[in-house]
Design goal:
The protein is of the alpha+beta class and 487 residues long. The chain is built from 19 helices and 16 strands. The protein starts with a helix and ends with a strand.
Amino acid sequence: MNTTSIFYAKVEMFSNATPEAAQAQPLFAARKKIYMRPVKGPFNNWRWVFVWLTQIVFYLTPWLQWNDRQAVLFDLTERKFYIFGLVLWPSDIVYMAGLLIICALALFLFTAIAGRLWCGYSCPQTVYTEIFMWIERKIEGDRVAQMRLDKAPLSASKILKKGTKHLLWGLFALWSGYTLVAYFTPIRELMSNTLSGSLSSGEIFWIFFYGFMMYLFAGWMREQVCKYMCPYARFQSVMFDPDTLIVTYDEQRGESRGARKKGIDPRSVGKGDCIDCGVCVDVCPTGIDIRNGLQMECIGCGACIDGCNDIMDKMNYPRGLIRYDTENGVANKFTRQQLWQRVVRGRVLIYAAILLAMVIGMAYSLSQRGALKMSIERDNRSVARLLESGQVENVYRLKLSNADEKPHEIELSAHGMNSINVAGGGKLTLAPLSTETIVIKLQTDPAKARAAGATSGSNNISLHLKSPEALDEPLSIDTVFSLPKQQ
């Protein structure tokens, strides 16, 4: 059958479908709220370790001081990024590109080793959803209490609980937005402006915008963000291979599943270790059943592992029915040692080597980054001119940058031509964290210059910048000096 025939056959099939059949295939399935069951275990503990760690860093960092300023500040107005003792300028964009490359390589490395570790433990969506759910449990109760409250008719108690929950969500989200803005406006200045009612429109917008998005994503959408908005789930499979650690259900051990009494050997009743309790589904933040295999929605958080291990303990069965394992590990029943030997494979070693080289290169480049920078441009509007003293003068525009947080005394000197010098001596002071454009004049005695080999027209020279405090060796930049034709 050719392509045209197939197309018309499909058209006829859909045209003959009954209304009931059409309704059975909805284009969009309405969201069903997931009521997560609280879970305890090592993976849940690790998740909360990262919740605390990331939030302590996020909320505490704007309060840290360094050299009488905020330690971490991205000053867009002055176009300077302060990261403790490091000050980055627009010309340092190469370091930002290097940082992005390092982050990408780290993502490739960690994903190749153990799948979606970022999603399960450190992603802001995971972290803030966990915090919002903790608030929800404190106000509305556990999973069963939440389901009962949602089904209950409207009452004063329900309004109070729901209102309190959303109020706390909103306050937490706004404080998070406020903290984010504090990375761009010093937090002490931001608080002073808040108390005096002089916040800028931009600051107000970003506080409420970030707060609203957190309230929406972590409070309402939750797993919808991971399922439908996050691009990582779509391309993660490209970075997986049969030796990548993933959350895995051991089907050979678990099937066939079914209920039974505690203490009964499952093989004696023709069953596997899975008692079909549904706990792995109840504790999953995205509501999937890991027993159906690895799915795009799985964020690798390990909640189902903790939940299943708890049930295995109660049934006196071995743990690990659901575990971190690899496709090859499950198929070939690898030991833990064999598993890790295959996890540390060529692909992982290559990623690690490139990542290490990038980190070392970035660190070395930053350590060699000087505080002083210099660029020069000849003033093309002014040709070489002969002064009354008999000397020839050329004019230049010099751009000097001091990336240090203290002033520096510098001295400029010219080289490459006999008797050439900087008019005025060339000594000046550069203010801290400043960029200045100055006009300098280089002068020489044409007779002495020609006697030493200089010619009419352009002659190569160099300008040196010395600073005993900031430079071990002088900065040097090449330019040309023009001599007029000899009369």
